[in-house]
Design a protein that fits this description.
292 residues, alpha+beta, eight-stranded antiparallel β-sheet, six-stranded antiparallel β-sheet, globular, disordered N terminus, VWFD domain-containing protein
């Protein structure tokens, strides 16, 4: 049962604790009603999956506009998603993400810490985003997942240790298409994923240029609490920076391939390669549990 029929061939049922698996479980429990559709988002170190399903990598540090969708859900001001990346050695990862629907904001940080409208650990039985319920699941001591269901769209933020991932899972109906038709940000133009600049016409090809273009500007709402030092440009890792480990401490290719093998079984070679790269770079087999 391939609920999302992703052209990259994701085996959703084999991803316990990930965003897609939680949606799958909810659908099977008849608590969500979704048409066949697709998943896009950001995860790992980080890998950014555009609307067309293709990935690009970005290793800089700054606050970024993942998605602006002004027509989303018939809600005033629509949907806005921002992420914050932080450099670690020669790569970066997402430390925080924020979803704004209407006037309400859910912010999730490393290790499952969260705020709703700047209230830390808000009671989610009472809090909502413009009337849409936020579901929080503590998968285990390392993983948390947050889900918001709006029509046939599921918005999911998950944390694995200090790494945050964000996914937008959508049905392929006409209404959902209209919600994202005028969207902008790192996920590209809908539905082609074309990497458009802020002017809406210039096509960018370099991931670093594209990410810099979609750095959160001072004129835009700052959905994530400001850092002590706020970058005016996205910072890239210093050239030549490497992780230093003692002999035998690093994870080898074979172990990484085994940890990420579920993507190979699902026929998702792009996700397999991203997973292996992250496991080796971060020296952590648990990273293979991230949704790609």
């Amino acid at each position: 049962m391939d609920l999302f029929n992703n052209k990259k061939g994701r085996d959703l049922a084999s991803m316990p604790g990930t965003c897609e698996a939680l949606v799958m479980q909810a659908v099977l429990n008849n608590s969500l009603q979704l048409a066949p559709g697709k998943a896009s988002g950001v995860c790992g170190d980080p890998h950014i999956q555009k609307w067309d399903g293709n990935y690009f990598d970005y290793h800089g540090e700054c606050d970024l506009v993942m998605l602006n969708a002004p027509d989303f859900g018939g809600v005033h001001d629509g949907l806005h998603i921002q992420i914050r990346t932080k450099i670690r050695y020669a790569y970066s990862y997402i430390t925080s993400a924020a979803i704004k629907i209407g006037n309400d904001v859910l912010e999730v940080a490393s290790f499952g810490q969260y705020m709703v409208n700047k209230i830390a650990a808000a009671d989610l039985t009472e809090a909502s985003l413009s009337g849409f319920e936020v579901t929080h699941q503590i998968v285990d001591e390392k993983r948390h997942s947050f889900m918001i269901q709006v029509g046939r769209v599921s918005l999911a933020i998950s944390t694995l240790k200090d790494i945050v991932s964000v996914h937008v899972l959508r049905g392929e109906d006409n209404v959902t298409g209209r919600w994202f038709a005028n969207s902008t940000g790192l996920m590209g133009s809908f539905p082609t994923g074309e990497m458009l600049a802020r002017d809406g016409s210039t096509v960018l090809h370099d991931p670093n240029d594209f990410a810099q273009e979609w750095m959160v500007q001072s004129s835009e709402p700052q959905l994530i609490d400001r850092l002590t030092h706020h970058h005016t440009v996205c910072v890239l890792p210093a050239q030549g920076v490497k992780m230093t480990r003692r002999l035998g401490e690093g994870i080898g290719l074979r172990d990484a391939e085994e940890a990420c093998s579920r993507f190979h079984r699902a026929g998702n070679q792009q996700a397999m390669e991203a997973c292996i790269s992250d496991v080796i770079a971060m020296n952590d087999l648990d990273i293979a549990a991230i949704s790609y």
